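Shipment paperwork, digital attachment
Item: protein structure file
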Amino acid sequence: MSIAVAMSGGVDSSTVAALLAGNNSAIASGSAPEVVGLTMQLWNQRRLPQLLGAEAGEGGHASGRCCSLDDVYDARAVASFLNIPYYVINLEEQFETAVVRPFVDAYLAGETPIPCSRCNTEIKFAQFLTTARQIGAERIATGHYARIRRDAQRGRYRLLRGVDRTKDQAYFLFGLTQEQLAHSEFPLGEMTKQEVRAVARARGLPVAEKPESQEICFVPTGSYRQFIDAYLGEQQRRPEPVAGEVVSTDGRVLAGHTGIQNFTVGQRKGLGAATGAPLYVISIDPAKNRVVVGDDCELFRRIFRVRDVNWIRPHSPGESMEAHVKIRHNHPGAAARVEAHEAGEAVVEFHEPQRAITPGQAAVFYDGDEVIGGGWISKIL
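Attachment content:
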């Protein structure tokens, strides 16, 4: 059996490749599975050079972050060390269409997008699985901290949280289909980060001590506002500043603004308004070009609508269930009632109000460790 490993150049995916390939002697004797390393080139780090600044290396690209040219170099070095075939596949066009443009458009529409989930759904599994099959691989493996289990009785696959809750990435994988789950492996799902590092060191991997990258791979400065401005300029889409209002929840105009894309629900700084007490963005109204601000207590809401729901555990329209729902990756989750609707929608009602439910973010539904499904927060009710 052949298996394609998504190699990002980091310690996690490199350890996956090492675990699946075994050591060099095993490969030479033919006792190890046939493993192929694939790196997805998603974003040209030389684009938008005005954003690189001091982070740009001699070659004109940002280093030390996900999907950079340095990461490709590291992935190739690991593949060479493990003596496995290695290829770089260019998915820049697909990535820009499926991830970058929706990211920008969501901010312009007053939402706060989460590109990592969309990348997993649209690129890292859909496109990657297709490419893996084209080179003859039956399965794919990634360095995600999550688990897959087959439910033989119901004839379906289950997605579970990773054992290491501090690294769990099941939240970002809610969009996976049964077909994708059936052909995927997450070898790190039963391991802790410390155990992964130990394996990498024991195998002598060149990236064993490489630090993690937490930033969005295509935003080199870490500022989404700077990225949006530069990207729109490159695309000749830069909108003229449209004066809007920053208003209180009771309708009083407190200040002006020049773009709702500069705000997100829960934001405190940079509001341009002062009332003597801390203010937070409560909601964004793109139709009226308004940013509504108020006290922290006004951020707590209970009911919201979700669009484009992917049900990993099948549910029919009109069916309701109790679930543990997370509205951000770092949200601890809370008990809620989830009702499935037609056209891939659902309505979630928390039993207790939750802070800063944000349109554009992912709402993921759990039953214990199992991911039932999830979708994109579209409207607070």
